[in-house]
Specification:
With 407 residues, the chain is an alpha+beta fold. It contains seven helices and 17 strands. The chain has helices at 2-16, 23-38, 57-68, 77-90, 134-148, 166-175, 202-223, and strands at residues 106-109, 117-118, 128-131, 189-190, 195-200, 237-242, 262-268, 272-278, 290-295, 302-313, 316-325, 329-335, 350-351, 354-364, 367-375, 384-389, 392-405. The strands form three sheets. It has a six-stranded antiparallel beta barrel with strand order 5-7-8-11-10-9. The protein has a six-stranded mixed barrel with strand order 6-15-14-12-16-17. It has a three-stranded antiparallel beta sheet with strand order 2-1-3, with no helix packed on it. A hairpin with a 6-residue loop joins strand 9 and strand 10 (302-313). Helix 3 (57-68) packs antiparallel against helix 4 (77-90) and helix 5 runs antiparallel to helix 6. The model is unreliable at 231-239 and 244-257 (pLDDT under 50).
């Protein structure tokens, strides 16, 4: 039982870093459970350590199998840990067996060095174990309803952590569904020999967008036209909040390099990009990271957020990036009372007598939301600012936070 526990901890640390355990690992863990079955100790209650609740080898193994299916690279460390603890808590709703019932959801081959998979073809009995998740999904749906009503299920309070909400439970319901869940997503198109230039950090992105707008204004003046900006009328702000970490507050005034790294585009769709890049030097990347990108040779910058992060090898990274907008607008937030900007704020965070922000007309669920990218320290629900953008001023009030993330 302790061997199964430590193997599970090893696998979790792999998942935290978006790696996958190898064939040798799965062969060892599968044979360990087969050994427990052969000696009829898989369902015997055991206490791993003093003051720990009793468990079984069956439940430990099944919990590892459940969390191993959450490897799409779109869950944070805390969410993965919660999913594992949730699997231990709900393992009594599932049982490994040899019979192929109509509601069998997943299978594992005890003689192979492979993780579990969906049941698609009937395989010979013996080394194959299957289980179904109908009771589990029913329980998760009930808990998700409690979250959506503003409460926290009493059974989950002991394992609650940041990042756990109804949306996570709904995600687990889809990943662990009785039958494969069919997603409707934009078609992905494979591309070759395409690269994008990538920039990061809110102050850097703000300056790049400003330079982009200055070029556009100059071209408009040369053409004899007028620059208009009416998309922020009657704006209601929902903040996508980026952090300003303590160690970054001592950074010297912004110095943007002219050259940024280029990453290979693996695939693209209307809503996102799949990017391949070297792992060395890119350890700062995490889920929720805000990025600016543009095609090689292009002038205009788009904004995106890392939604998927995988490590297909020791020296490679794969990112799934959601496109927020290809038309960001540089903005400055001035206090409504006319107070000056806090003098302790780094110079790179100040522009046009206000705190820097990026106005983003975000399309979400088919609806257009007027959102702001701002520093966490600038946010407070209902806080009012005068937003200055493209020479116009708007009185705004900050609404709910759409997302908190890192730069």
């Amino acid at each position: 039982a302790r061997m199964m526990h430590y193997l599970s901890e090893f696998a979790l640390w792999q998942y935290y870093r978006h790696f996958q355990p190898d064939e040798i690992f799965w062969r060892n863990v599968n044979q360990l459970f087969a050994y427990a079955e052969q000696h009829h100790i898989d369902a015997a209650p055991v206490q791993l350590f003093p003051d720990w609740p009793s468990t079984t080898i069956h439940d430990l193994y099944l919990s590892l199998l459940m969390v191993s299916m959450l490897t799409s690279g779109n869950l944070s460390i805390r969410q993965i840990r919660f999913a594992y603890q949730l699997s231990l808590l709900t393992s009594n709703t599932m049982t490994l067996g040899q019979d192929y019932l109509d509601d069998a959801s997943f299978l594992i081959n005890l003689s192979a060095g492979q993780p579990p998979a969906r049941v698609r073809d009937v395989l010979p009995k013996g080394v194959i174990r299957v289980w179904h998740t109908a009771d589990l999904i029913e329980q998760l749906s009930l808990w998700a309803t409690v979250f959506e009503s503003g409460g926290v299920p009493a059974e989950l309070k002991r394992i609650m952590t940041a990042g756990v909400d109804a949306s996570l439970l709904r995600h687990l319901c889809r990943e662990w569904a009785v039958k494969p869940y069919r997603f409707e997503r934009a078609e992905r198109v494979r591309v070759q020999s395409m690269q994008v230039e990538v920039a990061q950090r809110l102050p850097v992105l703000h300056k790049l967008v400003r330079e982009q707008e200055e070029r556009a204004r100059e071209e408009t003046r040369r053409a004899g036209g007028e620059d208009t900006f009416d998309s922020a009328e009657e704006v209601r702000i929902y903040g996508f909040v980026t952090s300003r970490r303590r160690e970054r507050q001592q950074v010297s005034p912004l110095q943007v390099k002219e050259q940024f790294p280029f990453w290979d585009v693996d695939n693209k769709s209307e809503t996102g990009l799949g990017l391949s890049l070297p792992a060395q030097g890119n350890d700062w990347l995490a889920l929720g990271t805000l990025l600016g990108f543009r095609d090689r040779g292009a002038e205009d910058w788009s904004l995106g957020v890392v939604r998927r992060l995988q490590r297909p090898g020791q020296d490679k990274l794969y990112l799934g990036v959601q496109i927020l907008t290809n038309r960001p607008v540089a903005a400055a937030l001035r206090h409504e009372e006319g107070r000056p900007v806090d003098p302790s704020m780094p110079g790179e965070m100040v522009w046009n007598q206000g705190e820097i922000a990026l106005f983003v007309p975000l399309l979400k669920d088919g609806k257009k939301l007027n959102t702001l990218l701002i520093s966490t320290g600038s946010y407070a629900l209902g806080k009012q600012f005068h937003m200055v953008a493209r020479g116009k001023m708007f009185l705004i009030s900050l609404g709910r936070v759409v997302e908190r993330a890192t730069e």
